[in-house]
Amino acid sequence: MASVQRPASSSDSDPRYANIDERKRKRMLSNRESARRSRMRKQKQLEELVNEVSALQKENSQVSERINVTSQRYMEMESANNVLRAQAMELTERLRSLNSVLHIVEEVSGYAVDIPEIPDPLLKPWQFPCPIQPIMASADMFEY
């Protein structure tokens, strides 16, 4: 049996094909380098996205904490307001009782007594019964 011998590659001996092989080899190297740069870019983008996610999660937790603190303060203020409303109602009832006593004194004695009008703070909360008194507040009252 005779073995078939292959002729030597034409690119091995022909200078024209050697030039093509060199271009092919350069293109392969260029493609490898381009792929490496592309992988590095993707890796950098991934790291940046991971950092951004981390920063956003941190910011989210800070905002959530501020919301919780603000909600707690709101509940405290709401509770304090409810106490003040109840006290205002009690004081209003006391004033009504005192006014009725003044009406009785006025009828019995015959003297004209100046009986103050009773404001309704629950119907008109923006109108203070004693507008002469200043309302005191401090800036640190709203800090958290």
Task: Please state roughly what percent of the residues sit in beta strands, choosing from under 5%, 5-15%, 15-25%, 25-35%, 35-45% or over 45%.
Answer: under 5%
Give the rounded overall mean pLDDT. 80
Percent in helix? 55-70%
Protein structure class: mainly alpha
- How far apart lie the N and C ends? 97 Å
* Secondary-structure element series: HH
Number of helices: 2
Largest sheet: none
Give me the count of strands: 0
> What is the CA-based Rg, rounded?
45 Å
Low-confidence stretches: none
What form results from the Cα inertia axes? rod-shaped
Give a brief rundown of this model.
The chain is mainly alpha-helical and 144 residues long. 69% of the residues lie in helices and 0% in strands.
Could you describe the 3D structure shown?
The chain has 144 residues and is mostly helical. The chain contains 2 helices and no strands. It has helices at residues 10-13, 15-109. The relative contact order is 0.04. The model has no long low-confidence stretch (mean pLDDT 80).
Ordered list of secondary-structure elements with their pairings:
Layout lengths: L9 H4 L1 H95 L35
